[in-house]
Amino acid sequence: MQKTILGRTNLTVSRVGFGALPIQRVDMETAKRILRKAYDNGINFFDTARGYTDSEEKIGNALSDVRENIIIASKTPGRNKKEVLEHLETSLRYLKTDYIDIYQLHNPKTLPDPNDPDSTYSALLEAKEKGLIRFIGITNHKLNLAIEAVKSGLYDTVQFPLNCLSSDEDLQLVDLCKQHNVGFIAMKAMGGGLITSPASTFAFLWQFSNVVPIWGIQHEWELDEFLALEKSPPAMDEKMLEMIEKDRAELAGSYCRGCGYCMPCPVGIEINTSARISLLLKRSPIQNFITDEYRNKMELITKCKECGQCRAKCPYELDTPSLLKTELKKYREFIANLKA
């Protein structure tokens, strides 16, 4: 497994990182088998978060006996010093460790004041002084905040969405991180599941030696796919570029990435799927989306109360209620055409 240095942390990490958000959807034994297989095949970088339900617990269960051989990154959504330190205590307990390598502020709306003794950044400094964390990181979906974080000199790593759909503007962050020796952790490497060819986005990201993608893995076959790509990285040839351009054309504009920050919905709408159903119908097997059960899920959109919670929580600032209504209309048309 090829390794790289993650910015000024000087941590040597596998260029294939393990994104542990999806393993919250599988049982403990399945998660242990997948995580252990990843480790046995050379993956040493595992990214999780306090907000990923039992993801941290599963990593602790699977890998605590090899703790000294792995790099763990976790995150806190804490809004003040007290909350961050409480989250950290819980994370350490579930991960079965006495330190976390990279502790990240999880998608804050603004950067905290480093001079405020009660700020979230103050909590990270205190945790670092106590040896509970080794390095300070931040995750964000907003380019301006990511740039500000890098230039501040306060963060050792930045985690930001990056894949073969990324704009030239987003790609400038890669160079900026290199200039400031900040580790770049790439999330959403598969575009929230809408990029259908792992080879294309893998080849695209492999070009940047200072970028470490964390591939979201739920199934063992997904792990096998990324392990195979790492052993024989695909070239960015003309055929690959054509595939990427096709994806860019189809996914141009604003679309739901399926991150789930908008959830839960007060009336039970499965927003992170329903808000992008027209894309999923084009890019995934449709069987699970045309059942009576799923049709009922989509019809829940008619019960939307326009409370605005989803709109306020969306890191991409989408008008989620309007998007849901548009997607329901497209879905109904799709189902009607199937019956015709």
Mean pLDDT: 95
- Biggest β-sheet, characterized? 8 strands, parallel, barrel
CATH class of the largest domain: Alpha Beta
Which strand order do you get reading across the main beta sheet? 3-4-5-6-7-8-9-10
CATH architecture of the largest domain: Alpha-Beta Barrel
- Domain module tally: 2
Number of strands: 10
Oligomer: single chain
- The helix content is 40-55%
Strand % is 5-15%
Low-confidence stretches: none
Rg (C-alpha, Å): 20 Å
Structural class: alpha/beta
- The ordered H/E elements are EEEHEHEHEHEHEHEHEHHHHHHH
CATH superfamily of the largest domain: NADP-dependent oxidoreductase domain
Distance between the amino and carboxyl termini? 51 Å
Overall morphology: globular
CATH topology annotation of the largest domain: TIM Barrel
Please characterize this protein's 3D structure.
Helix content is 44%, strand content 14%. The chain is α/β, with parallel strands linked by helices and 340 residues long. It folds into 2 domains: 3-247, Alpha-Beta Barrel (TIM Barrel); 271-339, no CATH class. The strands form 2 sheets. Strands 3-4-5-6-7-8-9-10 form an 8-stranded parallel beta barrel, surrounded by 4 helices. The chain has a two-stranded antiparallel ribbon with strand order 1-2. α3 links the parallel β5 and β6 (100-106). α1 (28-40) crosses α2. It is globular and about 65 Å long. The mean pLDDT is 95.
